[in-house]
Every structure is written in structure tokens, then in C-alpha cells.
Amino acid sequence: MDTAADITAMRRAITLAARGLGSTSPNPVVGCVITDAAGAVAGEGFHQRAGGPHAEVHALRAAGDRARGGTAYVTLEPCNHTGRTGPCAQALLAAGISRVVYAVGDLNPQATGGGDTLRAAGVQVAQGLLADEAEAGNTAWLTSVRLGRPYVLWKYAATLDGRIAAADRTSRWITSPEARADVHRLRAEADAVLVGSGTARTDDPQLGVRGIDGATQPLRIVVDTNATAVKSGARVLDATAPTLVAVAEDAPAGHLPEDAVLRLPRAATGPGLDLDALLEALHTRGVRSVLLEGGPTLAGAFVAAGKVDKVVGYLAPVLLGAGPAALADAGISTISQALRLDVTETVAIGPDLRVTAVPAPARKGN
């Protein structure tokens, strides 16, 4: 039976894991807390970067000899294979840990089995403590393993009546400085930031993370099917972070840096590129989470393809009455086809409201 101390330690491990968001891909985010034989916290750690020590190793180093006879609380099942680092199951055994509690089983077929290895060696092992919370914190990696594509979070900023710009296309600034700063947090937690040709042409965005010390810059991606929106000297091509410009296989892209061009097949129906091919190419490059920032046409294509896993909308207390909407054609022609969402959070950000929602399970009658 899980005790209050178990729950406190695991919740701390979940908090620690979140510190690795944006810097661990293609690996998951993982947190670990080690308590000694008396139940006092002896060490803690989190996976900080791909190729670096795992959370368990950081925590064991901090705990030292106090780990012997103690308990390890880990948000993800300790790995059981040798990659760029050694197996964490063996590290826990070598440290003399007598009990391991992990929240979520490792879905990676190459790494799973750590729990069985520990049990076979006589360690007491328990799984499932705060599993929902731990899974929510690691949802991008888990989604990528389950679906074989990156997790996609669509973010938009709009007026209360759903407009992302005025009728004359002016849009700076609809939301507050506080909301814009919060978007940089989302960028810092993502592996890649994605925009379409309309946004690139209108805003010439730089797409880097600003105002967050130590942030890992995400890969910047522009879907520019005909290679006409991103010009030589565009801000997205600066040295801040790596960039990919996704273009059609037959598009003339000689004006772009060769190493920045990602050629993809065109969509089988309608304009644009094959989104499955785009996501597959990103997944192959180790991208496990994508922040889709715009614009409405690209967002509509992702919604129509069923590739949006979460929506974060920043709503400003402003009315325009005209101008482009946040979402363009998404293949929905009648109310019965509407994509229903479950709101998971509403938070005031300065004068604005941040609404977070996920696609709802299919309901009878829809």
C-alpha cells in the first residue's frame, strides 16, 4: 500500500522530470528521488540531456552510500539496456537499492524489462504510483513511441471573437507581454517549432526562445511548399538555432541553404505537403514534440489530418469583428463532424486567458 511518503517522493520526482522538457529528445523526461533506509531523502536527479546520465544515476550519485537499503522513486521504469549510457536497473542494483517504485512502464521495446530484472535480483518493485500524473508530464515521448510520430501541440493567440488579425492583417500585438512570454516557455519545452508559408511571408518570424536562461533552442521548421516564402536573409535562417524549410520535391529551392531544405511529397489531395511524410521525417531526426504556431491554413490541415494532440489558445479580451480566424478549413462541413475538445486547464496570464484542451474521446451520437 502506498504511503503518504511514497506519494510525496513520487510527486517530487515528477516535478524534477519536467526540468528536462525540451532538452532530452529522443529520450523521455525522467525524474528520480532516492530515500535512505530510514525514509529520508538522500538524493534526487533528472535526465538533463540526451546522451547524458539518466535520472537514476544523478540521484544515486547525490545519495552516495545512503542509497544502500533505500528506495528509488522513478517516473519511468528504469531502463534495461546499454545505449549511450549503461542500464539504470543495473546501477540501482549495484548501489544496493532494496525497493524501486516507478510510475509508468517503459514502452520502448529496446529499454523495457528493468522492472523484471530488479525483481529477479530480489528487489521489491511496485508500478503505477501517480501514473496519470507521470504520464501527463511525459506525454510527448509516450505519444511518439505509441504512434511513431512527434506529439503536436497547436498554439494560437486570438481575440475573444476568434480573430488572429484585423481586417487589414495587422496583428501585433493582440495578446499581452505576459502571454507572449508564456509562449517562449512552450517553445523551450518543445523539440521543434513549426509555421507555414503565410506566417513566414507576413511576419518573417525568428522562432527562437527568448527570455529563458539556459533554454535549448528548438529546431525551427517552415512548411513552404513552393519555396516562395522564405527568402535569403530571412530571420528564421539566422544562427540562433537549426532550421528546416520543408518544400515540395519539385520546388526550386536554390536560394535556400542546402542543409536547410527538406524535400517532401506533395499532399495527395489539396495544396500543401504530405503531413505524414513531414512528421515521419521529423521523428527520424529525433523530434518527439512539435509546437505548431501557425498559421490558420497549416493548423487546419493538421486538424483535418487528425494530427493535433493538444490545443493551447491565448484569448485576449479584445473584439475585432472581422479578420482571419484562428483556424482555416479543417475538413469540417457540419456540426456533427466538429472536433470536440476536453478543457484540461484555464489560467489567467496577465489580462489574457490561456485555455488548454485535448481531443475528446468519441462520444455516442457524434
From TrEMBL:
Gene Ontology annotations of biological process type: riboflavin biosynthetic process
Cofactor: Zn(2+)
Signal peptide: none
Location of the active site: 56
Positions of Zn(2+) binding: 54, 79, 88
Catalytic activity, as annotated: 2,5-diamino-6-hydroxy-4-(5-phosphoribosylamino)-pyrimidine + H2O + H(+) = 5-amino-6-(5-phospho-D-ribosylamino)uracil + NH4(+); 5-amino-6-(5-phospho-D-ribitylamino)uracil + NADP(+) = 5-amino-6-(5-phospho-D-ribosylamino)uracil + NADPH + H(+)
Keyword flag NADP: yes
Recorded metabolic or biological pathway in which this protein acts: Cofactor biosynthesis; riboflavin biosynthesis; 5-amino-6-(D-ribitylamino)uracil from GTP: step 2/4; Cofactor biosynthesis; riboflavin biosynthesis; 5-amino-6-(D-ribitylamino)uracil from GTP: step 3/4
Record key words, sorted: Hydrolase, Metal-binding, Multifunctional enzyme, NADP, Oxidoreductase, Riboflavin biosynthesis, Zinc
Keyword Transferase: no
UniProt: NADP(+) binding residues: 157, 173, 199, 225, 295-301
UniProt family annotation: In the N-terminal section; belongs to the cytidine and deoxycytidylate deaminase family. In the C-terminal section; belongs to the HTP reductase family.
Primary role: Converts 2,5-diamino-6-(ribosylamino)-4(3h)-pyrimidinone 5'-phosphate into 5-amino-6-(ribosylamino)-2,4(1h,3h)-pyrimidinedione 5'-phosphate.
PANTHER family reported in the protein's UniProt record: 2,5-DIAMINO-6-RIBOSYLAMINO-4(3H)-PYRIMIDINONE 5'-PHOSPHATE REDUCTASE (PTHR38011:SF7), DIHYDROFOLATE REDUCTASE FAMILY PROTEIN (AFU_ORTHOLOGUE AFUA_8G06820) (PTHR38011)
Protein's UniProt name: Riboflavin biosynthesis protein RibD
Protein species of origin: Streptomyces parvus
Species lineage: Bacteria, Bacillati, Actinomycetota, Actinomycetes, Kitasatosporales
Gene name of the record: ribD
